[in-house]
Amino acid sequence: MRAQPAGATWPTQPLKLVVPYAPGGTTDLVARLLAQGLGERLGQPIIIENRPGAGATLGSQVVAEARPDGYTLVMSNIASHGISPALYPGLRYDAVRDFAHVALVISNPSVFVANKDFAPRDLGAVAALAKAQPRGVAIASSGAGSTNHLLIVQFAQATGANINHVPYRGAGPAMTDVIAGVVPLMSDSLPSAAGHIRAGTVRGLAMASATRHPAFPDVPTFREQGVDLVSNSWFGLSAPAGTPPAIVDRLSRETRAVLASAETRARFAELGGTPGDLDAAGYTSFIATEVARWLPVVRASGATLD
């Protein structure tokens, strides 16, 4: 009897999708949206497992070391697979070689949000307050190694303000503290902040896009406020290196089919994100380019593992 090719009967059991952040952030939100549509197309449920820590590298390392059978995946992202290779000198995985990258899922701008009772109404007022207060002003992020972290560093450099980065283990816990007034400001990816801005539980202070975002036309850009900064994040799907090509190809096709659906595109537009259009080969090349691009940026920013 002729043996079936690898992946011919895959999948025959539920898949696990590791999110290397706590629940509530953009990575988690996008993963759950993707898992629903992708699970329906594959005929198996996709179980989300949150594994936060160390700038999204802990959960990513778990997947890099997992059995390459197509049943363990990770939401790779700009922190874990773009910035962290430059920020963590002892990183225990290679962002390109130790993964079989599947597809780019979404990209989106960063945004500064403020507690609704925070007095400053623009970036100039934030910088002035930070310079006037001996202890400066605290700004939260989902953790070290993200574009949101680097945006905080670059904002402090551009304005000369005394800004204190407060890293959390995910955007969800950070946003909870901003809403409660524990921390006055947060640098966040737009999809996880979108609902809070619309609900009025936080105030959109500045969008880090080149022009005003069509979903949030009332939030001025950094550039409009005299700070020449643009910051975008990306999120994708990856598997351990050695995953059979047939499985990677199937995952890539089905993921891109989910992203092309009218329902997904409408939901991403509502969140302020743009669906990805890169297949497995394209996403792999993209990550290699990102790793090379971020190394000098991280060094120039002076970002540290705080």
Question: What would you note in describing this structure?
Answer:
- Helix 5 (147-159) links the parallel strand 5 and strand 6 (163-167).
- This protein has helices at 26-42, 57-64, 78-87, 123-132, 147-159, 171-180, 190-199, 245-260, 262-271, 280-301, and strands spanning 15-19, 46-50, 72-77, 99-115, 137-141, 163-167, 185-189, 202-207, 232-240, 274-275.
- It is globular, with a radius of gyration of 19 Å.
- It is of the alpha/beta class and 306 residues long.
- Helix 1 (26-42) packs across helix 8.
- The chain folds into two domains: 15-108 and 233-301, Bordetella uptake gene, domain 1 (D-Maltodextrin-Binding Protein, domain 2, 3-Layer(aba) Sandwich), CATH 3.40.190; 109-225, D-Maltodextrin-Binding Protein, domain 2, CATH 3.40.190.
- The chain has ten helices and ten strands.
- Strands 1, 2, 3, 4, 5, 6, 7, 8, 9 and 10 form a ten-stranded mixed sheet that branches.
Number of helices: 10
- Oligomer kind: single chain
Classify the beta-strand content into a percent band: 15-25%
- Mean pLDDT score: 94
CATH architecture of the largest domain: 3-Layer(aba) Sandwich
How does the helix and strand content classify structurally?
Answer: alpha/beta
Number of structural domains: 2
- Work out the helicity level: 40-55%
The name of the CATH superfamily of the largest domain reads: Bordetella uptake gene, domain 1
How big is the Rg? 19 Å
Low-confidence stretches: none
Major β-sheet profile: 10 strands, mixed
Number of strands: 10
How would the global form be characterised?
A: globular
User: Mind telling me the CATH class of the largest domain?
Assistant: Alpha Beta
Q: What fold name stands as the CATH topology of the largest domain?
A: D-Maltodextrin-Binding Protein, domain 2
- What is the chain-wise order of helices and strands? EHEHEHEHEHEHEHEEHHEH
Distance from N terminus to C terminus (CA atoms, Å) equals 59 Å
